[in-house]
Every structure is written in C-alpha cells, then in structure tokens.
From TrEMBL:
Biological source species: Pseudoneurospora amorphoporcata
Protein's recorded name: tRNA (guanine(26)-N(2))-dimethyltransferase
Catalytic activity: guanosine(26) in tRNA + 2 S-adenosyl-L-methionine = N(2)-dimethylguanosine(26) in tRNA + 2 S-adenosyl-L-homocysteine + 2 H(+)
Stored Pfam families: TRM (PF02005)
GO MF term set: tRNA (guanine(26)-N2)-dimethyltransferase activity; tRNA binding
C-alpha cells in the first residue's frame, strides 16, 4: 500500500507542475537553459535532459520531467523514484528556517560582542607594550642573537586571545581571529555556517542560503551520486555557488573528519585553535537519526550551537510493536498509551542527551514537536561538565497502567537536591540516589498491572523565550514565501501554552524579569535552578478514551476544563494530539471529576459494566454488590474501597462551569492540521545504493 500511495502522490505532483508533453513540444522555444533566471514552472533543458522548476520559499529546484513511458507504464509496485521534491515537508522546512533565524540573530550578536571585547583587549595590550618601549628604549635592542625583543603584533594578538579566553571562558574560533584582523571594522559579519548533512535535492540548503541573511556558508552533503549531481545543478540554477558548498560523502564520515581535524589542531600550549565546527547541524534522515547523533553533537559548536533533528520512525518510538528496536536506537522503551508521541519526543531527547554527555556536553531543548508522522526537535549544545552532572536527575522512568485505566506515574533516576552552602548565602546541589519504587505492581486507581517505560528525558521540552522569538520572526515572515505560516503559528502557540510552571518556577521567573528590568544581573542561583528543573506535569490524557473506559458519554471540553479550573488546577492542551487535556491535577482528582460527571450529567447503566474491569473499580460499583472472591482478595478490595471512600468524602464539590472552561478565541488558530489530501504521508525512499540510515526526499 505504501508503494501505491507513493506512486499516486508522484503522479499528482507532476500533473500539477508539468504541462502536457505535446504542449511542451509545440512550445520548444519556451524551454530555457540552466543559466536562465529561475522562475516557477519554467522548463529547463540541460545536457539533453528536461526539468521543471519548482519554487518553495525563495529557492527553486529542478525536478526531472517524467517520460511518456514512465507516465503510462509506472505500476504501483514499481514506484521507483529519483531524488524529487516532497511538498509534504514544506512545513518542516518553513519552521526550520524561522527557528534558525531566531537562534542565529542572538548567536551573531554574541559573536559580535565577543569580537568587540577581544579587539578592546588587543588594543589595551598594544598600548601597554608601547608604553614599555617608551620607558625602556635601550632594552629593546638586547639579545644574544641580535633579534629584537619587541613583541610582534602576532604575539600581542595571541596573548590577547589567551586573556580573552580566560576572561570570557569561550574559545576564540576562526571567526574571532578574522574579526581581530580588521574585518569586523570593515563591516564584514562574523561567520555563520550550517551543515545540511543529508541534503537530497539540496532544497533545505538553498532555502537557508536565500532566506537567512546573516548566513555565510551552508554545506549540502549527500552520499548518493545522483543526489549530489542534483544539488550541484540546483545550486547553479539558483546562482548560489558562493554560499553553498556541495559535498559528496557519507554524513558520518564528513562529521567525524571535521572532529578529527579539530582534535589535531592544537597551539603550542596544547589548546584547540581555529574551530571550524558548524553553528547549526541539521539532521533530516529517512527514518531514525540515531546513527548520526554521536557525530552531530561533536560537529556543532560547543558554545551554544544549534542541533536540529528529525526522526520519522514513529512506528518505533510511538508504538508498542517494537520495544526492542526502540531501546537499541534510543536507549529507552516506549509506552502503550494515548500520550505515546510525547514519550517519543522524550526518548529522542534522551538519546541526544546521552550522546552529548560523554563529551562533557549538555543540551537545552528549545523546541520539541510531534508533527504528523515525525518528530522535530531543536536543541542548544554547550560544553559544561558541571551542567552534565544534573542530567541524571532529569531523566525518568514511567510506570503506565496500559492495560487498565491509563494512569501513569514517573520516577526520576537520580535527585538534584539543593542544600545551603557553608556561608549561608546560597545553595549548592547534591546529586544523590532517588528513592523507589514509588508505585506498586498494581495500579492504585484500578488495580491493573503497571508496566515500565523509559528511561527518557524528564525536563522541559520547550523554551518559552525561544518560542516567542520564533513567533516574532513569524510576524515578519511573508506568506508568499512561507506557505505554512498559519499552521506554524497555531502549533507554536499551543506548545507555548502547554508549559505549566510550578509555583517556585513562577516566582523565580518573576524575580529574574524584575532583575533584568532593573539593569541587574540575575542571581546565579537561577541558572542552577534551571539546570535542575524537571517537568512535573508531563504527558496528557484524552477524555474520549477515559469515557470509553467508564462506559459513559464524553464530557464536552469546556465543562471538563471548567470543572478542573474550578478546583484550582490549570488546564491546557498538548500540541501532539487534538482533543488532548494537559493539567497539573493529580489522577485522583481527574477520576473524581469524571465520577461527578457521571453522577450529575451522564448516568451509566451499571449492568453494562462487567465486574473486575477497570471501569467497574473506578466507579466503585463493588461497594454495592457482594464479591465472590477469595478471602484475601476480598479483604484487600474492602480495604481499598474504604480508603477510596474516605478519600472521596474529602473531595471538593465539582461544578462543570462551561464559561470558566472556555478558552480565549479572539484569535483563531490552526492548532491541528487535517490531512491535506488522500493517501497523504511519507513517501518511499528514493532509489540508490545507500546505507539504510540515509534519506533521499
């Protein structure tokens, strides 16, 4: 079936983009050569082959025109394709361009500030040396071999670099050195480089070169020879030879070659020099990105470089069919649950984190999204052995009642415990063992068997500040260039709203903002608190699924949200799935609200609920009937029922306030995308003898 879908999509793409062959032949004069300015839908003839120009963003790519034989004889089981344009991934590319622009503006500003600071240090050093020469003119001629003892400009510059490194704790790279040689004064911007490791047609690299103004170079790499030829042709057609470097190599070989070069480049003092690591590394494979993560975290700049990762193997990280495959790729086990896509995000982040930690690198997730059939994450990578110590306390196991009510509980692998320092003026963190287990083998709510998942990342998966920066870029983005702006805005706003801060985090954020407004530096304790922060409210639930367990009608979204908010809890939604509810309310409150919904609004037929089922236990129907079970099981059941009954008596009154549960709808957002057409989804892998971890889209 997948081949049939691919063949159908293949035909539709070219039916829309290419005129009938007989019309093209009668208009032979309309065909242009490769040197013609790119225009959408124009026909290009190059070396005897005909192409049609497809435009996305500001880039144009050449798509081979299918022959008449291909059009007539292509069977569903012979959906053989070359490198081609996949319009389904335009959302991914639009989002990535905006994210890199939002990240890059801050990165370039930091580089410019670093360059200016370095220039000042060099100037001060030169002045001191000049003063020494004036005060001791005779000493300048001393020396057994007759050489001058005056410090050369290169020596001054090198010493200034050492001083800058000691002061800023940031290594001076090639861009810094160029700036110190006067290029910054001439107005030349610092270098900003991107690696498109699995470039396929080169469309991503072309869009980066066209649409990111401060980008100085992008490397488009691919292993398949036909793909490299396609990239070169597209680069020439877009006239971007000065910005796009085409590389024909295995992605791993390319990145490890760069790493080896970095390791060998040492100055006389043994320090690394002239870093050529990329500011941004983009991994967009067909399937999993796991084989590339070790090389990628080392190839991106370690002073805050951006790593963009796509994983399209949702059948592995978002299902329960291949737990052994998921563990071998990502180091964790998935769940059988409604919230499996967020678990998939956290498994991918855990895999990136563990790959980086071995080299003293820490990651900060900036934006992590479950989109259609794939995951897209943006993480910042920094060299910080001290921050790596916090990572054990930011990873967790999940206990899931997958065969019963669907409730979950989390267990951190370690604890990052704050303790007062000796001076009493602050805190320091101890990294200790975590207590466990926190749950019994049976679910506390319905008694069903609990299963384990993980380990996975347990920290925040988004940065609110970064999302706001991307939204700011989106405000300035022209809709004729970025065709998916409505969906991007809706998903980013949903991701921003799903961040539920704890009361302590809210106070810390407020104090941090006040310090910044007052022109003061934030308390250093804020930074460590951010490193130790975990997400206490991960995952989401689906009201329709819970209603199915309880055999009741599903409550509308507004009354359900209003009931939870009326009890003092926060309620939002998850970007992963429509109809989802994300809240800081515990499961005991959620079940209490649903029981009240049944009692007040939607009574159920108790005879339709079989004894021993999760719904039977959750509704406490056993209290009304005599159970015919063994004595020990009966005693345990009565004990559980008495405990639950006592707990239920303390439960507050539930009011299904529809007005309170309504969200602000003054701005309409496209939060969830419907399938744009029939047989929509990932297409087949392109032809070519390449390793299974390489994609050709």
């Amino acid at each position: 079936m997948r081949a049939l879908f691919a063949a159908t999509s293949f035909r539709r793409i070219f039916t829309r983009l290419i005129r009938p062959t007989h019309q093209i032949r009668t208009m032979a004069s309309a065909a242009k050569d490769i040197t013609a300015p790119p225009v959408e839908k124009q026909v290009i003839v190059h070396e005897g082959k005909r192409y049609v120009t497809v435009k996305e963003g500001l880039a144009h790519i050449l798509v081979p025109e299918p022959s008449e034989e291909d059009k007539e004889n292509l069977r569903p089981d012979q959906a053989v394709r070359q490198v081609f344009y996949n319009p389904i991934q335009q959302y991914n590319r639009d989002l990535t361009v905006l994210a890199i622009k939002a990240y890059g503006k801050e990165a370039v500003q930091q580089k410019q500030a670093s360059h200016s600071k370095l220039e000042k240090i060099i100037e001060k050093k030169r002045k001191r040396e000049a003063q020494k020469k004036e005060q001791q003119p005779n000493k300048a001629q001393k020396g057994a071999d007759g050489d001058k003892a005056t410090t050369s400009a290169e020596t001054v510059q090198r010493e200034a670099k050492d001083a800058a490194e000691q002061e800023t704790d940031v290594p001076v790279d090639k861009g810094d050195e160029q700036a110190t040689n006067g290029e910054a004064k001439k107005g030349k911007q610092p270098p900003f480089t991107v690696l498109d490791a699995l470039s396929a047609s080169g469309l991503r690299a072309l869009r980066y070169a066209h649409e990111i103004p401060f980008l100085t170079s992008v490397t488009a790499n691919d292993l398949l020879a036909t793909a490299v030829d396609s990239i070169k042709l597209n680069v020439k057609h877009n006239r971007l030879q000065d910005k796009v470097n085409v590389c024909h190599d295995d992605a791993l070989a390319h990145m490890y070659t760069l790493i080896a070069k970095e390791l060998r480049a040492k100055d006389p003092k043994g320090k690394p020099t002239l870093s050529e690591k990329y500011d941004v590394v983009d991994l967009d494979p067909y399937g999993t990105a796991a084989p590339f993560l070790d090389a990628a975290v080392q190839s991106v700049r370690d002073d805050g470089g951006l790593l963009c990762v796509t994983c399209t193997d949702s059948g592995v990280w978002a299902s329960n069919g291949y737990p052994e495959k998921c563990y071998s790729l990502y180091g964790g086990v998935p769940v059988k649950a409604w919230f499996s896509h967020e678990v998939g995000i956290r498994l991918v982040l855990y895999s990136i984190q563990t790959a980086a930690a071995k080299y003293g690198l820490t990651i900060e997730p900036l934006l992590s999204l479950s989109i259609d059939f794939y995951i897209r994450v943006f993480v910042r990578v920094k060299k910080s052995p001290a921050a790596v110590k916090f990572q054990g306390g930011k990873n967790m196991m999940v206990y899931n009642c997958d065969s019963g009510c669907g409730a979950w509980s989390t267990q951190m692998l370690m604890r990052n415990k704050p303790s007062p320092n000796k001076k009493g003026s602050g805190v320091f963190y101890k990294h200790t063992f975590a207590q466990g287990p926190l749950v019994d083998k049976g679910c506390e709510h319905c008694g069903s068997t609990m299963h384990m998942a993980g380990p996975m990342y347990g920290g925040r998966i988004h940065s609110p500040d970064f999302i706001k920066c991307v939204l700011s870029e989106l405000d300035e983005a022209p809709t004729d260039v970025y065709g998916t702006t409505l969906r991007i805005r809706g998903m980013l706003q949903t991701a921003l709203e799903e961040i539920l801060l704890t009361p302590d985090e809210q106070e810390a954020e407020k104090a941090k903002e006040e310090a910044i407004k007052a022109g003061k530096k934030p308390d250093p304790a804020f930074k460590e608190a951010e490193l130790a922060a975990v997400d206490p409210y991960p995952f989401y639930f689906h009201p329709a699924t819970i209603s199915g367990i309880l055999k009741c009608s599903c409550p509308p979204e507004a009354p359900l949200k209003g009931a939870l908010r009326g009890l003092g809890y926060r309620v939002t939604r998850s970007h992963c799935k429509p109809g989802s509810i994300k809240t800081d309310a515990p499961w005991s409150i959620i079940w209490h609200v649903f029981r009240e919904w049944i009692r007040q609004k939607a009574p159920v037929k108790e005879d339709n609920i079989k004894p021993g089922t999760p719904g039977y236990r959750l509704l406490r129907l056993g209290e009304k009937k005599q159970q015919q079970e063994e004595q020990t099981e009966d005693a345990e059941a009565r004990k559980e029922q008495q405990s639950e009954q006592a707990e239920g008596e303390k439960m507050p009154e539930v009011v299904f306030d529809e007005q309170l549960g309504r969200d602000d709808k003054t701005v309409k957002l496209v939060r969830y995308q419907a399938n744009p057409r029939e047989n929509w989804g990932p297409l087949n892998r392109a032809v070519g003898k390449v390793p299974s971890h390489h994609r050709k889209d």
